[in-house]
Amino acid sequence: MANLSLLDLGFVLFESDATPLHISGLVLLTPPKEEAIGFGRALVTELKASDQVQPPFNQVLHWGLTRLPRWQPAASVDMDFHIRHSSLPAPGDMHQLLELAGRIHSYRLDRSRPLWELWVIDGLVGGQVALLFKVHHALADGVRATDLFARSCSTEPDGLGQLFWQGSARDDATARKNRETLLGNLFDLSLWRRQLGASVGLAKLAGKLALNAADLAQTRLKIPFTAPRTPFNVSPDRARTVALCDLPLRRFSRLAKLTGSTTNDVMLTVCDMALQRYLQLHNWQGDKPLVALMPINLRKEGEMETACNKISLGLVELGRSEDPPLVRLHAIRDGTAGIKQEALDLSPDAYYQYSIVVNGLALAAGRLGLNHYLPPATNMLISNIHGPTEPLYFMGAKVEQMFPLSLLLPGQTLNVTLLSYAGQMHFGLVCCRRSLPGFEAIAEHLQQALAELEQATLTTLVQVLQEQAESEPVTTPDDEAPARERA
């Protein structure tokens, strides 16, 4: 039996009906013209026939004598249960698809079975077919799930990938090895030395945060549990609703180059502007910036991407409600860069432990109902996943769009996750159905926010060029004549 990592253990222990801790992906497919009729049903039949299921997708949670869950092989995997089929009634529009996706995303996965499902949804207008892949976060995070689906696809229309549940045992063994386990590494001396160093760094960090809270020292890290309480900080109920937005990736990349920031900074700024607009339209005004929980890459510049896992969750303070677009972008850029530098100064391991402690406390507070009395640790979770850069094909059908649908943490009613695919940035927004009226408008606010940021950048660029032109001396033909005569 395989152990769970400390982080994965938290996702299992703190799950409830109101906060199911799985993630989903909504994929839109265009079948080949000659196979368009009946493609969905044929796809379901073919997927169910692919019943050679490999770890970890044939594993279930087992609660042993220690009362800590571990993975163990299931006696059997019922493909009729894990591969689902649903047909939308006419007209089969996007609203109907999102209603169904919200219902599927609302309920917990059955713990008596392997923690994944794949839905095939047909009946969409234009003959498209949708896939909804649902997997527990203890089994795969967003990056891993995206990689698994990409591995199931091909870059050629007539090519075939390896279905994610049929991955090789070697690949899955490598993936498990890269996730530090709670019990399996007790006798690894190098790990003990590393953890000891991280604990020292964690103690230093706690001291810095305490001094910062008392105004005796400054740190660029956000002090936990000091976020403003907003409409986004309502305890979630079970029902979920989703909204989608699709924007060209090149627009984010161009803004990043022009402003000296990263694509992630631009993405955060656009999200912040859209969320602030939603709050203002619903008559909420705060005097403190929103705080987002988001992944932080702790690799140093030039460090190999294949190095050990150095992605952690950090608290990022966004812009103030009155900030103009570029001021907001610069504040977010400086904040994310400062957080990363503070974390690297301590050590990535220490910051990883810090994020485990903070987020573990937030999960525990939500599980015990204490989030009603404590200030929020964060207002929402925002994540950006780098997906495939080339167009893909799944079982002969072209993958048109890939939208991530993530989880809601206790004390939060909104999640924004982005996934880049084939030159597009796909936004997947998830919220509690009854918590945020008019939630779907946030997707429109995202489009408006990106246009406003582009306009502000262009206006500033024109002003800079005009100032440079005015400051340079103007040379006339009369000035040049004496110089030619001397020559």
What's the structural blueprint in terms of helices and strands?
Layout: H1 6-13, E1 22-30, H2 39-49, E2 59-63, E3 69-73, H3 79-82, E4 83-87, H4 94-106, E5 116-122, E6 129-136, H5 142-151, H6 169-177, H7 189-213, E7 240-248, H8 249-259, H9 263-281, E8 291-297, E9 311-317, H10 325-346, H11 348-367, E10 380-386, E11 393-394, E12 397-405, E13 414-421, E14 424-432, H12 441-471, H13 477-486
Parallel strand pairs: 4-5, 8-10, 10-13
Antiparallel strand pairs: 1-6, 1-12, 2-3, 5-6, 7-14, 8-9, 11-12, 13-14
Helix pairs in contact: 7-11, 8-9, 8-12, 9-10, 9-12, 10-11
Description of the molecule:
With 487 residues, the chain is of the alpha+beta class. It has two domains: 172 residues, Chloramphenicol acetyltransferase-like domain (Chloramphenicol Acetyltransferase); 233 residues, 2-Layer Sandwich (Chloramphenicol Acetyltransferase), CATH 3.30.559. It is built from 13 helices and 14 strands. The strands form three sheets. It has a six-stranded mixed sheet with strand order 4-5-6-1-12-11, with helices on both faces. A six-stranded mixed sheet has the order 7-14-13-10-8-9, sandwiched between helices. Strands 2-3 form a two-stranded antiparallel ribbon. Strand 13 and strand 14 form a beta hairpin. Helix 9 crosses helix 12. The longest helix is centred in the C-terminal third of the chain and has 31 residues. The relative contact order is 0.15.
